[in-house]
């Protein structure tokens, strides 16, 4: 039993439940319910749905100056729409994840995607800053299941030795948003209107809803859902539906685990470097190098996105190989924390160094050379953050088992709340002090994140 225990959940899940999960892990049948073709289709559907949250957040950033101008506001005020949407996604992701463990993955997707579609139309039609904030909150709530429930789906259908690669591909596909959403938002804003991007997001949501309805089966392991327990106890006729009020915030009790706290802070530290670079990009690169074309500013985001796309699948394969290597060394004993070893070099070097170099380059290097170097640092950050955090996400699925979506949601919610609040201070900090100081602070925080992962 020691080979499958994890200190993260040792005090939050009963020994009986953990033993049952361990026995389930050993049974190949539960992972062979779907053919390879079906699994590839499932990965494609959940990846498309996970692509949407990044398009919602990243496509909005290059439009901020245009939105501020239209509503006679400021960039700092409009950037609060990013903060509010991240807070909304953080809270609702816990709700969606909790109910996905009771009713299943598929019903949650079919419930949240219509919310996203309605929110996208609301943003497109809004006529004031308050209404913009309101509809962005609903829009973000509709996307909140994309990553956490999607990761849970992959945990349902892939064994531990395959899971890192699958989640790496899932994260890599979803991170296409980081590469192309800012460009799409910039092109829409420059050549038409920032509202056009919202109509495009509405269409993406409709496509995701249709794909989910047609190609995403229920993936939860048989007998593990809350509603299955009602059927087994005879409290509900099989096939019938009954609404049950759940406390979604019970999952926050998982934060009692020191390991989850460390992992969550590490995720916050890594993601903060991304937002420290991306949120002020229309100003740090746009104004600094006299680029006033929103499409060109949006194109600068591609460098970081390409790093994300390359880093996520690479990180997945490396983490799987690390698990297999250390399991073999221990004579078959599996220690979930072995997976985290794969991300430590990138967390120690690529992540803090990239954000630090960007700050000093943007402040002190002029002309074309400055632009080229900054694009290089953006790419370096993109690949570094994925190499660092992809093993962390897979680790949570490994030890979460049937509660993997909840674990991912708790981590993501806490991370997004903290990052959302912190991002509102990035532009003011740059304006009051300097970009080099701000980015140096982000680099120090990243090193603290490395220490957290190394301490698990």
TrEMBL record:
<feature type="transmembrane region" description="Helical">
    <location>
        <begin position="197"/>
        <end position="216"/>
    </location>
</feature>
<dbReference type="Pfam" id="PF07690">
    <property type="entry name" value="MFS_1"/>
</dbReference>
<feature type="transmembrane region" description="Helical">
    <location>
        <begin position="108"/>
        <end position="125"/>
    </location>
</feature>
<feature type="transmembrane region" description="Helical">
    <location>
        <begin position="77"/>
        <end position="96"/>
    </location>
</feature>
<dbReference type="InterPro" id="IPR020846">
    <property type="entry name" value="MFS_dom"/>
</dbReference>
<dbReference type="InterPro" id="IPR036259">
    <property type="entry name" value="MFS_trans_sf"/>
</dbReference>
<feature type="transmembrane region" description="Helical">
    <location>
        <begin position="137"/>
        <end position="155"/>
    </location>
</feature>
<feature type="transmembrane region" description="Helical">
    <location>
        <begin position="260"/>
        <end position="283"/>
    </location>
</feature>
<feature type="transmembrane region" description="Helical">
    <location>
        <begin position="371"/>
        <end position="392"/>
    </location>
</feature>
<dbReference type="GO" id="GO:0005886">
    <property type="term" value="C:plasma membrane"/>
</dbReference>
<feature type="domain" description="Major facilitator superfamily (MFS) profile">
    <location>
        <begin position="42"/>
        <end position="456"/>
    </location>
</feature>
<feature type="transmembrane region" description="Helical">
    <location>
        <begin position="41"/>
        <end position="57"/>
    </location>
</feature>
<keyword id="KW-1133">Transmembrane helix</keyword>
<feature type="transmembrane region" description="Helical">
    <location>
        <begin position="436"/>
        <end position="454"/>
    </location>
</feature>
<dbReference type="InterPro" id="IPR011701">
    <property type="entry name" value="MFS"/>
</dbReference>
<keyword id="KW-0812">Transmembrane</keyword>
<feature type="transmembrane region" description="Helical">
    <location>
        <begin position="167"/>
        <end position="191"/>
    </location>
</feature>
<keyword id="KW-0472">Membrane</keyword>
<protein>
    <recommendedName>
        <fullName>Major facilitator superfamily (MFS) profile domain-containing protein</fullName>
    </recommendedName>
</protein>
<dbReference type="GO" id="GO:0022857">
    <property type="term" value="F:transmembrane transporter activity"/>
</dbReference>
<feature type="transmembrane region" description="Helical">
    <location>
        <begin position="295"/>
        <end position="319"/>
    </location>
</feature>
<feature type="transmembrane region" description="Helical">
    <location>
        <begin position="340"/>
        <end position="365"/>
    </location>
</feature>
